[in-house]
Amino acid sequence: EGLPMGDRIELLREAGVDDDAEAAHIAAVSEGLPFYLHLAADTAREAVPPGVAGVASHDALLRRFLQHVRRDEVKTLELLSVARSFDFEIFRALTSRFSLPNTRSTWEGLASYSFIRPAGNGLVQLHQLMATALRERSSVEATHEAHRELREIWEDRGAFREAAYHASVSGE
């Protein structure tokens, strides 16, 4: 799932978080996601006044993250956040439908982020913290269109539970 609590605290100490309460808070809300831990430590130092225990908001963390990601990658991640799990073919189908880059190298770049983890059977999934934040950025129309595409994909694969989930969420 993520790093154990002790490892989270150690990583935060190495990142310069010296306050015990702040380190414990960041470690708890990070759910052990290394990327989130680093980003939270960096962003908290910029967003929270010195001497005040706290962590930057999810919005501040997402804004900071998005500064390091190409615009088309952000849109792709927003679309993928709609899926509970996905693979290269799902990535290709969604990016094709929305006219986004969908090369193998684009896939490999996205799949290498620490917030994308194996989900079994060749599938991967976005860490819940990142998926939630990215879903909130996407328009209702794009989200519904992505769910419709995902329903078709899962239906074609005979995965009717996933197909039904996406159909119900999209209002079909």
The coarse overall form would be elongated
* Biggest sheet features: 2 strands, antiparallel
Give the terminus-to-terminus CA distance.
33 Å
Strand order of the largest sheet: 1-2
Number of helices: 10
Q: What's the helix-strand series?
A: HHHHHHHEEHHH
Give the proportion of residues in helices: 55-70%
Percent strand equals 5-15%
Average pLDDT over all residues? 83
Structural class: mainly alpha
Question: Brief overview, please?
Answer:
The protein has 10 helices and 2 strands, in the order αααααααββααα.
3D architecture notes:
By secondary structure, this protein is mainly α. The chain is built from 10 helices and 2 strands. It has helices at 5-14, 20-29, 34-47, 58-66, 71-80, 88-97, 104-111, 128-135, 140-156, 160-170; strands at residues 116-120, 123-126. The chain has a two-stranded antiparallel ribbon with strand order 1-2. Helix 3 crosses helix 4 (58-66), helix 6 (88-97) packs across helix 9 (140-156) and helix 9 runs antiparallel to helix 10. It is elongated.
How do the strands and helices of this protein lay out in sequence?
Layout: H1 5-14, H2 20-29, H3 34-47, H4 58-66, H5 71-80, H6 88-97, H7 104-111, E1 116-120, E2 123-126, H8 128-135, H9 140-156, H10 160-170
Antiparallel strand pairs: 1-2
Helix pairs in contact: 1-2, 3-4, 6-9, 9-10
